[in-house]
Design goal:
The structure holds 2 protein chains of 2 kinds. By secondary structure, chain A is mainly α. Chain A is about 65% helix and about 0% strand. The longest helix of chain A has about 30 residues, at about 20-50. In chain B, about 50% of the residues are buried. The chains are: A mainly alpha, B alpha/beta.
């Protein structure tokens, strides 16, 4: 509609038809219902249960702040579990991103057999996490695994890997790097999408390789980097499966179901993550109220992390924040 | 004209969503029917109807249970038993918590859940049924009775048990000229060190006995009977720090670990085969002795039939010799869910599974678990090998011990186990202070659940 200059017509605007608004709400209803059932309700329920003593079978009993008092003053493992989780956030996520970016960078420049190498690097990410962890732990078994046998050929005494508390998390980091194919593919697509004329312009301006990466490549792929950082951060905060399976297999007592609680954290609590501890308290110790308090704290911390992260990334806004 | 959602509309929708969620939450706080315990004055003369049995067994073991269920149905032609296999404790509790009447009899593999199930009424109180039908509870040992009830409420019946004992390799013993298994921990250590062999590079080739806490069945619960270690007091709080036996046992175990070398043991243990695979270190001869349950006899028969081995009660510490012959026992338990729609029929099935000698013997033979009534243990139909007899004897021993039920489930054993692993690594600090810390940790956890 072309807006003319001057005053609008004296005719009053047509009344907004209520049926239009409700029609929109009706169309949104299925999605809203899903959000309500699978997001809002669990969120509010967790918050409520965190103020109760609740074992799932009996009705929840209101106990006020007692769960939070226990969490901050008496729980013997929550802080070590939180530190373990922090380790994965600080080391696993950035290392995985850097490795994925490096591999994607190499693949973006590959001429020969590019498709073959992309497949090779991508395939490990298709392996189910449990299977990949079991395989890794067997490969790195200090006594019988091939890795230490190969090291021995070169005269190197292989470490205990997943059985050493100081090496268990770095060993899982190796696994994380091995399965970085999904992240690598996303980076590869972003790198291939960087306008080549920008590189040409940079070359004309005398930029060297490092400068091209810093001033051309990275700014163009920042949205993808941020996406990977955010999803990696969330995954690290929720880190459970790989650490649980590694503990079970490395301890020699692979168990399932609630029996898993007996091996979580092996060796010596080094792989006990925050979410694992939440699971133990909730389902092995029948303290769902307390587990809800742990979940609420995790939500607050995750939200805080993301707010800080997103505020510090200027280029998150593709239009430019400044 | 394009319709737009105003911020006001968005706030209204958000408020509506939050209000609906809060309303749903209030409904959640309402409990399901706790299940009235209206027990008929007399047991019905004839049983009929459908009853569901939920258990955790799968594959071959599930077929053993099915065989016993078939026998029950044959004895009661009007009864149909719907069996749900592969259901672990979490599933049982969730179904019961939902107030479902789909579950009548639940069979759990762990006594960890007894405290919770009995205190919350998730499983019905069975005492009225037991009194009415004059069930002979003296057939069940005091220890087994103790782990299947909580604070005076009997909400479960024991159904088969696991017993731990010492396994030893007779061929390795014979090579070293050893003719008898050890009866004391000092003897165990002496024999173990004598049977331990090393590779040229100093690493362990074979261990006489692996004292490493956390390996296979090396747990505080299984070692505890060597000193009569007490877990909880009458109020459900930790008795570990004040018990005289635990420090003796822990110091012996740590000294044994230090004698061989923590790092060497760590490396050797890490390289052992999975516990329930054919590469189990006792099967392969990497361990000359080990502590394990009666089910190991079935695994050996299946995976290492040529292994020449013997079994004996686990040795006891110096000063605790009167305990020799006893051991650790714990087992499966079963109860009637509070939402059961046919509790009389459920009780009939439960009573059959837990007290019928033929049923217990059949399950014991099939699952290679120890029956939990004296009549079944002494039944001539029970398949008892020379090695299996040890477990029968231990089950019948009056001083055989268990881990008591608690409101925090396995939380107290996990807390103790975690500290013990630190202690053996040399990072546990002063033992007395460490055990006091374990007490505090357990008591705080119990207070969280049951405190004011």
């Amino acid at each position: 509609m072309i807006r003319g200059a001057g005053r609008a017509s004296a005719r009053p605007a047509p009344r907004r038809r209520p049926r239009g608004r409700w029609f929109a709400i009706a169309m949104l209803a299925p999605a809203l219902l899903g959000i309500l059932v699978f997001f809002v309700y669990p969120l509010i329920a967790s918050l409520f249960f965190s103020f109760t003593s609740y074992d799932l079978v009996s009705p929840p009993e209101w106990i006020g702040l007692r769960n939070y008092e226990y969490l901050f003053t008496k729980d013997p493992k929550v802080w070590s579990a939180a530190l373990n989780t922090l380790w994965f956030i600080v080391f696993l996520t950035p290392v995985k991103i850097i490795m994925a970016l490096c591999v994607a960078g190499l693949l973006a420049r590959a001429n020969r057999a590019a498709g073959f190498w992309r497949t090779i690097f991508y395939l490990p990410s298709l392996v189910p996490p449990v299977a990949s962890v079991v395989a890794f732990v067997f490969l790195f078994n200090p006594g019988t695994g091939p890795v230490n046998h190969i090291l021995k050929v070169f005269g190197i005494e292989g470490p205990l890997w997943f059985n050493d508390p100081s090496l268990s998390k770095p060993s899982l980091m190796l696994l994380g790097i091995w399965v970085m194919g999904d992240m690598m593919v996303i980076f590869l697509a972003a790198l291939l999408d960087v306008p080549k004329d920008q590189y040409e312009a940079a070359s004309l301006d005398g930029a060297n390789g490092v400068q091209k990466v810093w001033y051309v490549t990275l700014p163009n792929i920042v949205p993808v980097l941020v996406f990977s950082l955010v999803t990696g951060l969330i995954a690290s905060l929720q880190y459970f499966t790989e650490a649980a399976v590694a503990s079970g297999v490395a301890s020699g007592k692979a168990t399932v179901g609630s029996g898993t609680a007996t091996t979580l954290g092996y060796p010596d609590g080094s792989l006990l993550t925050y979410t694992q501890w939440l699971y133990v308290r909730g389902f092995a110790n029948y303290q769902l109220g307390y587990a809800s308090a742990l979940a609420v704290l995790l939500f607050i911390v995750a939200a805080a992390f993301l707010v800080v992260l997103l505020r510090r990334v200027d280029a998150f806004n593709p239009e430019g924040a400044k | 004209m394009q319709q737009r959602f105003t911020p006001r509309t968005g706030r209204r929708i958000a408020a509506g969503i939050a209000g609906a969620a809060a309303a749903a939450l209030m409904l959640t706080a309402c409990s399901g029917d706790t299940g009235s315990v209206d027990v008929a004055d007399e047991a019905p003369d004839e049983l009929s109807g459908t009853v569901s049995l939920w258990h955790f067994f799968t594959d071959r073991e599930a077929s053993v249970i099915q065989g016993v269920v078939d026998d029950f149905e044959a004895q009661n032609p009007g009864v149909t038993v719907e069996v749900h296999e592969g259901q672990d404790d979490e599933k049982l509790r969730k179904v019961i918590a939902a107030g479902s009447d789909d579950i009548d009899v639940g069979l759990s593999y762990s006594t960890d859940v007894v405290g919770n199930l009995c205190s919350t009424g998730a499983f019905r109180d069975l005492q009225p049924y037991i009194d009415r039908d004059e069930v002979d509870m003296s057939q069940i040992s005091d220890t087994v009775q103790s782990y299947s009830e909580f604070e005076g409420t009997r909400c479960t019946m024991p159904v088969l048990a696991d017993v731990n004992a010492l396994f030893y390799n007779k061929d390795i013993f014979a090579e070293a000229g050893i003719t008898e298994p050890p009866k004391t921990l000092d003897e165990l250590e002496d024999i173990a060190l004598k049977l331990t062999e090393y590779n040229d590079d100093g690493s362990i080739k074979r261990l006489g006995f692996n004292p490493f806490m956390g390996m296979y069945e090396n747990t505080a619960a299984h070692f505890g009977p060597a000193v009569g270690g007490k877990w909880l007091d009458d109020d459900g709080y930790s008795a570990i720090g004040s018990d005289e036996g635990w420090p003796v046992l822990m110091q012996w175990q740590k000294d044994f670990v230090d004698e061989i070398g923590y790092d060497k043991l760590q490396a050797f243990t890490a390289g052992l085969g999975q516990e329930f695979s054919a590469d189990n270190a006792f099967h392969t001869g990497q361990l000359a002795m080990t502590i394990d349950g009666e089910y190991r006899t079935a695994f050996i028969a299946d995976q290492a039939p040529d292994l020449n081995y013997g079994t004996a009660p686990f040795p006891t510490a110096t000063g605790f010799e009167d305990l020799y012959g006893s051991g650790y026992i714990v087992g499966n338990i079963a109860g009637i869910a509070k939402g059961s729609k046919n509790p009389e029929l459920a009780w009939a099935l439960l009573k059959y599974l837990s007290t019928d000698t033929d049923a217990l013997v059949k399950m014991g033979n099939g699952l290679k678990n120890v029956p939990t009534t004296t009549a079944a243990l002494e039944s001539p139909d029970l398949e008892v090998s020379e090695q299996y007899q040890t477990f029968i004897d231990i089950a019948l021993h009056p001083k055989t011990a268990t881990t008591p039920p608690s409101l925090v489930g396995a939380g107290y054993t996990q807390a103790f186990g975690s500290y013990w692993e630190k202690f053996q690594a040399g990072t546990g600090g002063n033992l007395a202070e460490g055990l006091a810390g374990v007490d505090q940790e357990i008591n705080d956890s119990v207070d969280l659940v049951s405190g004011p």
